[in-house]
Amino acid sequence: MATQKVEKTKVDRIRSLAKAPMDDYYVSGHRTCAGCGPAINYRMVAKAAGKDTIFVGPTGCMYVANTSYLCVPWAVPWIHAQITNAGGIGSGISAAYEARIRKGKYKGKFPNVIVMAGDGGSSDIGLQALSGAMYRNHDLLFISYDNEAYANTGIQVSPTTPYGARTTFTPPGPVVPEGKKLWPKDLAKLIVGGHPSVAYVATASIGYPIDLMNKVRKALNVEGAAFMHIHAPCPKGWGFPADKAIEIARLAVQTGMWTMWEYENDEYKINIQPKKLKPVSQYLEAQDRFSHLTAEHKAKIQNFVNHKLAMLGIKVPVEAVTA
Amino acid sequence: MKSYEVKIAKEKLLPEAGIVKAPSPNGEQESMITGCWRVLRPVIDHEKCTMCRSCWIFCPDQAIEVKGEEMAVKLKYCKGCGICANVCPVGAIERVPELDFEGGVVRLEKLF
Amino acid sequence: MGTKKFLTGLGATATAVKMADVDVITSFPIRPYTGVMMILSQMVANGELDAEFIHADGEHAQLSISHGASAAGARTFTGSSGVGVTYAFETYSPISGGRCPVQMLIADRTLDPPGDFGSEHTDALGCRDQGWIMGWAETPQEVFDNTLIYYRVGEDPRVRLPQFNCHDGYFVSHIPGDVEIPEQSQVDEFLPPYRPVDPLDPQNPLGHGPQIFPDQGPALEAMRHNAMMAAMPVIEEAIDDFGRIFGRKYAPFVEEFMTDDAELVFFINGAHAHTARYAIKHLRERGIKVGLVKIRFIRPWPTDVLQESLSRFKAVGVVETNSSFGIARGGGILAPEVCGSLYDVPQRPLIASFMGGLGGEPITLKEFDFIAEKLKKIAESGKIEKPVYWLGFEE
Fold first, then answer.
1. Structure ipTM
2. Domains of chain B, with CATH numbers?
């Protein structure tokens, strides 16, 4: 919205784990489940963003589990938003700093404004607020941390829950053998497809921290709105042991269930693409939420993944299923 | 004008608007100590450890620290999820039952 | 010393917002309030006002953006009407609970269904329990003045509450009147720049709105209540200062008109007070001792002032330009609050309510005659036969 741009700071690329910032701004002392994927994501994002950051945290796991009770685990400013309106609150903070700095009412740097919304708070009930923030091109980064369900309320289906997943609102049964019957929304594509002002959109995964942190920094360096969709496996919701979040995250990428790309200058750039894909059944069978699926369902998912990859221009063979 | 104000005892007063101070960077949120959740304790074999920092970056609880020339576990907050042991490329982290330790976690010390 | 302009309520609001040097404005179109945003967007385009003018994606977003901006230290302005006001309902309590002094103009409009442009207060009054300061203006001049007064009260560190700055759609929003525009220096003296208490600022990291234990709820609610109570002396102070600086003296909470010897009074908020004054003059010519009690603030509700004021009369007719289907006594929202205020007073008047101006109908002189007649009968008989009359339906 700025008529006259206020000066923004730039951050550097991270070359390796050894060069990753030592400082943590998402600190010990929160009630997220043991082995929580979204908590790993929060930590990496906060690390990459650094101290001049303001987080907006709409209702969701990362609100409820992190701030109980009357305390916060962030060493930077943070504000709760409703599950509906994180994009709005973020827009307001960004606009306030534009105006206050321009009018000489605030002496300091323009902060990184980062909205950290769950998949429900970004692809479903919070979609309008997200789209509004992107359309208006406020200087902020909107992150959708995707654990593929409304997890804090007890794992209910969301638009990004994969086809065939069992949730407490999509229980499989004789009449509905596959559990969830719908194909997931592709939120990152939705942002790319209809928001021409947005200069940077990326997907990332907690399985690939250097890639994730550099994408956060790139997104923060962009003038105006940026969006990231980050895959964050949920041990409780998906039904895998607490020590497996990173394996599951990597398996999602290795099977093509999650794709890693950046969109800038009107182009998609695929990152971290294995030469050969593992069959999706390997990913599905590692999680209890898919344990009811038949071979037919799994084949449908494989087809869906193949099609999704083809649409992105990814042409890599899928390894034969070895059973 | 009559006062309709509620007298709130000092010990019951909360920060206005529920706005609270943030912890310091690399600090801890002592209102939510989670070490008492742990069933298996990560134990680092410093001989094997290559200081690659995989355990450090993947810890959801900032419970692994780089301390000088060694990696160290912050037991006060480690929930015992075991991700660190799993991501270690050289198998330098072992998960040992808490009950094997003197003073190990044997129960929930408080509700959360 | 200032100039005089012929302005609508919306024009007066926009002028006051500009003079208040607002930082962030969030807009979305809905009649009748829309005009204020058309004027403000032109001011921004002309460079007369340096503010972020944001095209929100709906009223819910208007309020959400205002919330974020206010929490980040900006003086913010927004507004709406009718179903726009109710669409944003979710956001009101988080804003007052976060103690963000957002100001929202409500130019009243009847709620659907069916679609109706006319003024009715149910849109705003439906939000009366959300921790916002709330009151009505009767004329464009009062609109201008309230806009400045509300910012001053809401931003006071003893208060820190958002404000619903209400006026009737069309009757006030669109009908022009004389407005004295003060010098900028007078406004600056009355309304200092907004100094946020706990803004979102990386230089002083704070957490806004973490979850609480149930046993932490009572204290936070009591503190929000106390903030609303603290607004009362702050309003009195602000009105005093306003009179000193601008030369216009308001009664802080309750304005009376021809009540010195009155036995009967009309109790009104908002624009219909204007008609009531004329009606009273006519009724007085016929020897009926009637006066007007106009309430300027609905929140905080001035219980004590009303006890003192209303206990002097024999009968009070509460004019209700709102509906609450199934409420106590079967009328509108205000009468139960008036009755509640007077319950503890030994010498209390008889109270009836009159449903009028619904759907944006004017309340005519004839209808005020009807109210006065019923009040007279009530006063003479000493009892209430019917607590509610629907104007235009009853003999």
1. 0.97
2. 30-112 (3.30.70.20)
